[in-house]
Amino acid sequence: MSRRQHGWTFIEVMVSTAILVLLLVLMAEALNTTQHSWMTSRTAAGTQQNLDAANGIIGRQLQQATLQTRSGYDMNLNQIVPASDLHFVCGPAAELLPGLPGTCGDAVFFQRPAADTGSGLRQALQCCGFFVQYSGDEAWRPVFSNQIPVQRRFRLLQFHQTASEMTLFQSSGVNGTPPKLAQLTSRTDLYEWFSQPIGGGSSSYPSHVSVVAENVVAMFLQTTPAAQRCYDTRRQQWEPGSVTAAQTRHRLPEMVEVTLVLTDEASWARLNVEHADVLAGEVRSFIQGLSWLPDAMPQSLDALKQMMTAQGMSVRIAVFSVPMGD
Fold this sequence. Notes:
Layout: H1 10-63, E1 70-74, E2 79-83, E3 89-92, H2 93-96, E4 106-116, E5 121-135, E6 153-161, H3 187-190, H4 192-198, E7 209-214, E8 216-224, E9 231-232, H5 235-238, H6 243-248, E10 255-262, H7 265-269, H8 273-288, H9 297-310, E11 316-323
Antiparallel strand pairs: 1-2, 3-4, 3-9, 4-5, 5-6, 6-7, 8-10, 10-11
């Protein structure tokens, strides 16, 4: 019997071990690549799902916005002008919702025809709106989830108020006078029909504020024709005599371009609450320091994306246009 039949030589063991290690390394790299691809696909799918939800809901409801404009007579101008009992306004969320913490970017509020299941009306006006806020998720969590850690995120929120809840047509109490909304000259008072129901807190929202999509960091709105970043169909009440007020008086914009800045869940899940709050504050401050007028929008978006990417955040920017009509 030869010596080789009694066992492996030292060199053979070393070669076999080296081959085995090489195979294990290759398998680990393949597994890591597969896992990374799966995580990337899952993250992209989650971001796309949020974008589809935002695009579908905002686009569909903005297209339904109405003013039901008619002809009216302005005693001060001594001429026929457009008239309406309704309201459309979009602009910086900090101006439209000054008492609400954590808002970011722009907001929009309007009326649209919709069914009111509470009152049984098949076709009634509904107040609607969209804004972005950074906050915890306490307002939308079931009672039994108190032991689950709070998730603080940027969220695209929807305001919806049925005809039976609307205060839009609140009377001034004097017979023969128009609704109170038509007599207001303060922007703060003029916006109370949506700012008061939304409230100033982030953990006690009423039932008419709901989440459209998570990880939407900001929403920016541009209107055609442009109106100094704030398009208000009742601008003539707080800025009488201005050219912009005359152009937008009870007229819907022709087009609204919606820009959404989105991140993914993985970018925030790696942060604890304290770090998430700090980063969110930095993002909000950075956004407030940029110009969001139409001419500066591309440069501002690039700067925001670079800033967030430098912080390790995945960023996606989506733009879509919504044609308006009444």
